[in-house]
Amino acid sequence: MTSIQDKSSKMSAFSLTMLAIGSIIGAGMFLGVGLTIRLSGPSIILAYAIMGILMYFNLSFLAELSLLDPEKGSFQTYAAKAFGPGVGFIIGWLYWISGILVMSSEATAAAIFSALWFPGIPLWAFIVIYTVILTGVNLSDPRGFGKLESGLAIVKVIALIGFIILGIVLVFFPLFGGAPGWHNISNTPFFVHGLSGFAGSLLLVFYAYSGTSVVGLAITESSDPEKTVPKVVLITSFLVTTFYVISVLFLILLHPWTTYNASTSPYVSALLPYKIPIVQSIMNFVILTATLSAMSASMYGTSRMLNALAQQGEAPHLFNKVTKKAVPRRALLFTNVFLVGIAFLSYVIPNKIYLLVTGASGLLSLVNVLTISLAHWRLRPKFLENRKDYKTHVIGYPVSNIIVTAIFIGVFFSAFAIPDQRASFFLGLSLIVITAGAYFFLRHKLGAKPQAPETIQNQHLAPTSENSLHNLQHLAQKTEKRISEGFRSKNKS
């Protein structure tokens, strides 16, 4: 544990829960849900509920591995322990590639949201502008960046809660005109496009739940983790699933589901018919802010992953360098260069770019999730040999691992069921094959890895994802403190 960690206070269940929720909610929900509703119709409610349950198990697998064997590398390290260094190499690089695709997805979503106010500006221009701005933010002091990210994470939660409250008012208290309500569900088949349409939506639904690795990284940050973490896993899964399912329900109740698409956020489109003054612009601004927050966070973590791979000798030594402020500038700039390519694609295929990068990123994230499930199945008995006092909180092991793995494999290949997603499927599959091929080509050169720096004083180490949690937790702790002080003051009065 670093000196920075020693000076930091431990995260409570509240702080860790807020951090986990903030890391999961992103453009996959605020924009991608429009595509999933169009693909699946009313049955999309079931899809989000099922994926929420699977997210709970995935979080449980990762959390238990982290409790039994705390590791800084989290799922990448467990992949190497369970299946060898080759899998660890592949998972690390797939995480980096997936991070680029996540940034691309968030940048594309932010461009689409911005087009609501400036329809004459092409998407590629917004992507370039936001990339330049957020690159500058990431080149600054990581501590200030962490505090900013923690604050913006709350915006995502507020956006969903605010929409749900507004949906309740519009559906059950029609102050601004009557909403279609339950007729949008009762007047159409539940599986409107059959099981193929339902299956085809699962990959995009899964993408909305991705980003759960923060829980594994934060295990060492929590107070009394064996009691705190299982509660956090349950609460996080319940809250995120509830937010998603209820908000999707109101999206269907407020507006004809056949009109949703990837050109506008459904959370804005659903409110347009009610002509509530400036509410659409407010919602669009909040969602844009949250999306840029997710893009910036992905930029931060992805550049650190490339830097970490370089420190382990699994990436060019060029990316091992960091600035005096511990920013891996070379890794950051190299990573962000790929966003220029995405800007070019948004110029060539503006109507399909979001689905392409989101689907491909979802496939790579699925590989990580499958690795977590299989690594937990294989490593748990070995870890328990040294932890006789450990009390399990994973339900149904090892049957649950088998079921979750089988479902996620089905989701992986379901991307091929929808013609519009086949390009994403082949892109994601190609990236997996290329990464695996790179390992087999370089495996003889990966034997001699550079030694880790002896002291932090001698070299400026880039903060890992784990260390960044110290920065991200500050606002969560302040929020919890203020809430507690508010309750105490009320009790005194």
Automatic annotation (TrEMBL):
Name of this chain's protein: GABA permease
InterPro entries: AA-permease/SLC12A_dom
GO annotation, biological process: amino acid transport; transmembrane transport
Gene3D superfamilies: Amino acid/polyamine transporter I
Record domain Amino acid permease/ SLC12A: where: 16-437
Transmembrane segments: 12-33, 45-66, 78-96, 116-139, 151-177, 197-220, 232-254, 274-295, 331-349, 355-375, 395-418, 424-442
Subcellular location(s) of the protein: Membrane
Gene Ontology CC annotations of this record: membrane
Signal peptide boundaries: none
Keywords: Amino-acid transport, Membrane, Transmembrane, Transmembrane helix, Transport
Record organism: Desulfosporosinus acididurans
Domain of life: Bacteria
Membrane topology reported for the UniProt record: Multi-pass membrane protein
